[in-house]
Design goal:
One of its GO terms (molecular function) is glycosyltransferase activity. Keywords: Glycosyltransferase, TPR repeat, Transferase. The strands form 2 sheets. Strands 3-2-1-4-7-6-10-5 form an 8-stranded mixed beta sheet, sandwiched between helices. Strands 8-9 form a two-stranded antiparallel sheet. The longest helix is centred in the middle third of the chain and has 17 residues. α2 links the parallel β2 and β3. The chain has 17 helices and 10 strands. It folds into 4 domains: 175 residues, Spore Coat Polysaccharide Biosynthesis Protein SpsA, Chain A (Alpha-Beta Complex), CATH 3.90.550; 79 residues; 56 residues, no CATH class; 82 residues, no CATH class. It is globular. α7 packs antiparallel against α8 and α10 runs antiparallel to α11.
Length: 414
Amino acid sequence: MKQLSLCMIATGSDAQLKRCLDSTQGLVDEIIIVNMKPTDRISKLGQSYGAKVFDFYEEGGYPEAGNFALEQVTGEWVLWMHEDEQLDQNDRYRVRDLLYQEQCDLIFLNVLQYGFTANGRTRILDMAVPRLFRSHFRFQHFTEYQELLNYNQLKGTSKEPERVGIFPVKIHDYRLEKNPLQNKSNVLRELDYLNRQPLTAGGNGQWYAYHLACEYYRLQMYRPGFKHLNTAIQHYLDEKQLPPYIIYKLKYSVVLDEVISDEIDHGLKLALRMYPDYVDLQFYSGIVHYKKRMYEEALHHFSRCLELGETPPGKYLVRKGTGSYQAAYYKGLCLEKLGEDDDSIRAFIESLSYLSTFKPSLEALIRRLGEDAVLHELTYFWDHELPMEREELQSLLDTYLHDTGGMKSLGRVT
């Protein structure tokens, strides 16, 4: 059986570390914790999970501590995590299956980083990040907020397929939600340093470019991020190869931060020619057309999202809801704009059938029905087959209106 080692650096937060270890319990064969702020509390907590805990007193910072952790590994594969991350409970057991991907030395997983925009809105940055790799890898650069693997350690030649895999196993990253990145200038200096390093010496510069783009996107600085992603794309085009879809996923995720331009629209069209069945790209294209008030075109893309769906997990990293409740919600908005009232209502109900707690669809449906509407008095609800039971829908709307306070009940279905 393949041996899997969990590696991480601890910096003193035992509550966060406990949640991380809980999410991997029973999954890994070995746990390596390097404690950069040695405390008995962290040591005892790690040891209670069977971890090997090393207090790090040597000179140096994160790069030295990270590589020291990797030097302690006895397993063939490493799962690298941060102490304030959690492995998704629905995906956790799929990690061991990935250990038998003999064609891979390095595997990108789906990291969801939670934070805030400048105006305080919750922001989820959805990235593919190298977190599962064979134990011969080492870090080339590492800071408190980022680590950079030495991609030059990838085996193989330019004439052989890349020994890199990409799989939709999710890790939830809460670092920036709990500790927002305050000193942007320091991070920019780090990025400037990386930009000036000869990082492409081993012929894997496309992955360095992707890494730098991730860091710029983290800072919501999209223009330099675009530049690096275009560099990565050009590498594959020069080699007459299809660029990995994760590059396009990251590149066009800016539409969720309401960054819309003709350049993005054009690029999405080209990306969809290469990946027509990638639901995230269809969703992004729908958002672009909706923002440009091209509702029929947007409706086409959101309908296509629902056709593609998002389960069972396929070969793509799929953003939750783009093939179900989010797509149905935007489909309803498009139909509403096109004057298709009954169909828009049905789309909002379809969204709730996927996720009954999705607040935007609840509010849109109430807006369409009116707060005083009684379901059994509406002809629509008897002339149309609904995506969910009428009693369930009535209860859902009643509960929502009651919880929001001061609104009248919608009545009962009889």
